[in-house]
Amino acid sequence: MGHEWIGAEKEFKWSEDVKVESEVTEIVLVRHGETTWNAAGRIQGQIESDLNEVGQKQAVAIAERLGKEERPVAVYSSDLKRAKDTALMIAKTCFCPEVIEVPDLKERHVGSLQGLYWKEGAEKEPEAYSAFFSSQNDLEIPGGGESFDQLCDRSMNALEQIAKKHKGERVIVVTHGGVLRAIYLRITQASSAGKLLNASVNVVHRRDEKWIIDSWSDVSHLSSVGFLQRGFDGDAKA
């Protein structure tokens, strides 16, 4: 069984029979640029929100940085617009002909919190707000939201499949703060992932079925553009 590409948007279908080799795969994980809702303090989840002016400049800055580094063989992205728009700028600068969309890389569905401002979440949706910050990882967020375990499972599965397809190669994956947090905590088993900043570079390596964090939350390329200092912090209540 191989991998199939369907339609103009190149939907990616996973294969389950790729041999495991001892080569290192480098995956550059990128959080999308700043959006209008990021700046306003609104909870996006899986709701669409466009890159704002700062976010567009961040996307250009990260694209310029990655364009000067080792050329990736592919650029992957969440299917949400804010990630795709960031990924398209990166793909152009890195001379990759397309962006491959992976729905499992989309942000966590946070149920009835979606669309609210962080500062009003605890008052308007106390049960959902409590579930989001709960240490009970199998607790689903009321209103159709995912549990943290569900988010971790789909995020890591997507990463595993990309790594299997690109043994010994370098690829770029554009995703979201919640997904990055899930990946970091699943790999490190740490108690906190800290702040996940817009347009940050986070590098992981895969070798011999083991994941290693090479670098995390690097925003050195944004010195002339700026970024929201608060970032995404799923460990601390607003």
TrEMBL record:
One of its GO terms (cellular component) is cytosol. It comes from the Eukaryota. The active site is at H32 (tele-phosphohistidine intermediate), E107 (proton donor/acceptor). PROSITE patterns: PG_MUTASE. SUPFAM superfamilies: Phosphoglycerate mutase-like (SSF53254). GO terms for molecular function: phosphatase activity. Substrate binds at R31, H32, G33, E34, T35, T36, W37, N38, R82. InterPro entries: His_Pase_superF_clade-1, His_PPase_superfam, PG/BPGM_mutase_AS, PGM_Phosphatase. Belongs to the phosphoglycerate mutase family. PANTHER family: BROAD-SPECIFICITY PHOSPHATASE YOR283W-RELATED, PHOSPHATASE C1620.13-RELATED. This is Histidine phosphatase superfamily clade-1.
